[in-house]
Amino acid sequence: MPQFGLIGYPLVHSFSKPLFTEKFAKAGLTDYFYELYPLQSIEEFSELLRATPTLRGLNVTMPYKEQVIPYLDGLGESAAVIGAVNTIKIYPDGTKIGHNTDVIGFEKSFMPMLKPHHKKALIFGTGGASKAVRFVLEKIGIDYRLVSRAKHENQFTYEDLRMQDISDYNILINASPVGMTPNETALVDFPYEKINDSYIAYDLIYKPQETLFLKTCKEHGADVQNGLQMLYLQADETWKIWQSDLIGTKIVTP
After folding, report:
1. What predicted TM-score, i.e. pTM, was given to this entire model?
2. Catalytic residue (choose from 65, 89, 96, 207)
């Protein structure tokens, strides 16, 4: 009875269980199961593996996309470069290999939004999800700045956004959990009055489907998109990894 699942905390926002349950049903895999594993700390990961020897794959969400890496036996090439994992393939001998399919999901869902004048981006959030976004922006040649509460070199603080000229940064990407269910009234701190119809706003959150961030950006004229398409695209890539034997895939020791 092969088992799969999702680790993270909390998991009240997740669509992963019905998504993969539907995939198993369509493939006629009636003995495959997908469960949610809300781990309150990453230290519980090893116990989960011991208690569930039939686990063959896991998705990883916040806050463990980076924290899980020391517990793995190897990384796929993109996960090694990015430094974040959202998919784990577990072999029958217990070998655990981490991959990053967020990259494919974000790139394929984000690229159609771009127009020639979109050259610079602001990324809200500095965690594992943000790393996949950064990887894609670097790949396609879009300059970006991270935005965080603390002052760091080559980053903006939220206060900086009000004090500096940021008119060139007309791509706004929320890679933080701000506004995610159940905290739907939370809003990314940004001077929204600066937004016009030359902007695009992308939120990796998909529950709710319209965050307050997206709603506010749209009211000021921006073209907006949530993370639901990204979820489905990365899930398709995850399913390919779980089904394959990964022959020819470059594995990097973490």
Report:
1. 0.90
2. 65
User: What is the amino acid identity at position 219?
Assistant: E
Residues 6+ apart with CB under 8 A from 234: 86, 87, 101, 102, 104, 105, 106
Please tell me the chain's helix, strand, coil percentages from 3-state DSSP, rounded to the nearest 5. Answer: 35, 20, 45
Largest CA distance in the chain: 57
Tokens of 12: 């009240």
Q: Can you give the C-alpha Rg of the chain in angstroms?
A: 19
- CA-to-CA distance for 186 and 166, rounded, in angstroms? 23
Tell me: the pLDDT tens digits for 180-195? 988 999 999 999 999 9
Side-chain-side CA neighbours of residue 18 (13 Å): 4
How distant, in Å, are the alpha carbons of 82, 97, 101, 103, 253 from that of 76? 10, 7, 10, 12, 9
* CA gap 98, 128 in Å, rounded: 13
65 is catalytic: yes
Give the integer Cα–Cα distance in Å for 187 and 254. Answer: 36
| pLDDT less than 50: residues of the chain | 246-251
CA-based nearest residue to 141, from 164, 171, 165: 171
